[in-house]
Amino acid sequence: MGRLANLMGIIKDKVSQSKAAIISKPKTLTLHLSLLRATTHDPSTPPDPKRLTTILSFGHSSRATAAAVIEALMDRLQTTHDASVAIKSLIAVHHIVKHGSFILQDQLSVYPSAGGRNYLKLSNFRDNTTPLTWELSSWVRWYALYLEHLLSTSRVLGFFLSSSSSSVEMDEEEEKVSALVNIDLLKEVDSLLSLLEQMCKTPDCLHVRGNPLVDDIMGLVGEDYLSAINEVSIRVSEFNNRLGCLSLGDSVELACALKRLEDCKERLSVLSHRKRVLIEAFWGLITELKDKVAKERAYRDERMIVSTGRRDKASESARFGDRLSRRYGDSVRFSSARFGFNRFPNFLVLDSVESCA
Q1: Chain centre to alpha carbon of residue 131
Q2: Which pLDDT score is estimated for 179?
Q3: Could you please report the per-residue DSSP string of 259-281?
Q4: What angle do CA 220, 226, 229 make, to 5 degrees?
């Protein structure tokens, strides 16, 4: 069955390329042929890097040409029922995110967010041709959803995560992050965490272990992982600087975010075996900040209890003085200074602490 399926795939590739040569316009012929050759039916070979480079090169032309690239790629993704073709199309999308020109990336970002059809929605994709294609189908569904998260996170951050065309210096990124108010900073952290959580949900399939297509996917996702934790690290460090002046609500949200992040640690550890020192330093930073947040909340709770106790004592003294006044009228007068009625300390109201942002 596997050999027959492979033979049928080769035939389909030849027919598709012949059809494209006949019906494609001269201006788009190279584009369509490169796309078809990059997204073949062969489940044992990832997209040819040369074909992907050719596809990316069209992003350096006009906006209309870039739009034609995305349209052809999404049409290929949506019309195929073959798991290998779908995965290779998604890999091409991922390469556009990572290496595409600004115009090409901009055209790609329009598709999921334009209010129309979501071309990355493949939750119902199934290819039951062989046991291998059936398991690859689960990777198609997961990978498409992952790329949705990647594009969504990129919109929140204002640049394409892990993209070579939008990389900035660390100092510039830290300066931009330091200017954010807490609510926006938390929003960016939440979006990055959602992406990391989606990374943890990779399918666990026996038949695809060592499959070149899956290995290619995991290589790309592993690079995204390093970029994501770098962005999280910058924002967590900024929260570390603001820790003493966060509102109660912001500190609770931050604690929840750090807990979500630690819950992902074990699953994320398999994504990259590169830059182990950087990764270990990142998790050390998360643990350190989590402990600081817990201590800060405990300190605030203690201050709240002390403040509440003082208010209760003050109220009791005031009631005692009032009872004396009502009982004896003006015949007995006590100086307020004697009982300290006018010397109550200023009590700290934690909920009114304004953010430093």
Answers
A1: 32
A2: 94
A3: HHHHHHHHHHTTS--S-HHHHHH
A4: 135
| 170's tokens | 């660390």
pTM for this prediction: 0.80
Query: Which residue did the predictor score with more confidence, 337 or 169?
Result: 169
DSSP 107-171: HHHHHHHSSS--TT--TT----SSHHHHHHHHHHHHHHHHHHHHHHHHHHHTS-TT-TTS---HH
User: What amino acid occupies position 239?
Assistant: F
Query: Which tokens sit at 234?
Result: 């910058």
Cα separation, 118 vs 124, in Å, equals: 13
For residue 349, which of 308, 319, 296 has the smallest C-alpha distance?
308
**Amino acid code (one letter) for 217:** I
pLDDT in tens, 105-119: 998 887 644 455 678
Q: Please, which residues have CB within 8 angstroms of residue 32's CB and are 6 or more apart in sequence?
A: 20, 24, 72
What pLDDT digit, counting tens, does each position of 45-98 carry? 999 999 999 999 999 988 999 999 999 999 999 999 999 999 999 999 999 999
CA proximity to 97, closest of 37, 29, 63, 146: 146
The 8-class DSSP code of residue 59 comes to G
CB 208 within 8 A of CB 136: yes
The Cα 156–Cα 177 span in angstroms is: 13
Comparing CA positions, the residue from 145, 143, 137, 152 lying closest to residue 121 is: 145
Dist CA 107 CA 68 (whole Å): 9
Give residues with Cβ within 8 angstroms of 98, minimum separation 6. 160, 162, 163, 164, 220, 223
Q: Give the mean model confidence (pLDDT) for residues 305-329.
A: 57
**Hey, what are 96's tokens?**
């556009």
Nearby residues of 268 by Cβ (< 8 Å), 6 or more positions away: 196, 199, 200, 225
Tokens representing 42 are 């062969």
Give the closest residue to 18 by CA, choosing from 6, 5, 32, 39. Answer: 32
Instruction: Give, to the nearest 10 degrees, the angle between helix 63-79 and helix 26-38.
Output: 40
Question: In this predicted structure, what is the pLDDT of residue 335?
Answer: 42
pLDDT of residue 80: 94
